[in-house]
Amino acid sequence: MHSRNEPSIKLADDIRQYLQIHQLSDSLPAISYEILALQLLDSIEQQQQIEVLFNQSIPQTCCDPKSPDFDPIKAIVLLKDSDYDEACWLCFLLIYTNDSEDNDWAFMRLLYGALGLSESKLTWQFITQQVSSVDEVLQDVSEALASHHPKPKFGHHRAYESLAQLPAVFNSYIGFIGEQGGHRALFKPESNRAKSNKAEADKTAYFQTLYTLIRQNIYRFGRLSTFEYLCLLGKMDLADVAPDSCYIAEASGPKRGAKLLFGMLNNEQLDAHAVGLADYLDVGYQQMEAAICHWQKSPKRYIAVNH
Length: 307
Description:
Elements: H1 6-21, H2 30-53, H3 72-79, H4 84-97, H5 106-112, H6 124-129, H7 134-147, H8 166-179, H9 183-187, H10 190-193, H11 200-217, H12 223-235, H13 252-262, H14 267-281, H15 285-297
Helix pairs in contact: 1-2, 2-15, 3-4, 4-5, 4-12, 7-8, 11-12, 13-14, 13-15, 14-15
């Protein structure tokens, strides 16, 4: 477990203070609040690590799924200014697989490496050029992944997904982006780009708009996938968005955590207090959502999670 350092103890005290101010129970064991604080600090650190990449020199090999240097996060940072569509596509693939560095990006290496095809990479340019044969191409990829040993595993946030549904999911995404006029037209529309310092209120309103659109149009993208996709696009400065809420009430994990923390309240109250606590602690809404979700799995013992 982390050392009992000052930041986590101070943060745990602040969490309890928020609960007391709002006349909510703070009767969990003291260690539980410290564990939540540690998860929050982890979430904040993960965001800071991404921001550090913006000012680093990143090798082209991080975009090559066959290279030891392959890293989709670094690839997105590298491509975001030179190949906007590819950066957005990589964000989608990353959220779809929920893959992580923990297993050396095994799923992403196979998927982005165009397993089952003669191509070297499953790029946005390639997939959108397959106008008449896209169904066949996606079916080939799906079957090749399913028969690969070891079979690639979806991350825990996508635990109920099946490779058999890959063609339908990808088709819905490709069709949706096409209908919207492309990634840039959807995520950074001209009217928004004209504002160099887009107001935070505008970003949160646009997050809501896109959240609803994606939920309605991308197959098998539920609350968490949609939330994480938009947050990733926002973090990478690929979309003019910022979460307007923690979106706690629509997912079982975060909702369980919120009830454990705030009590048996209704969905609206749970969401309101998650936002209220995030504001009180001055942390981001995604950081709060992720911390509560991870914390509820083990509220008395710290478990490091690759976010």
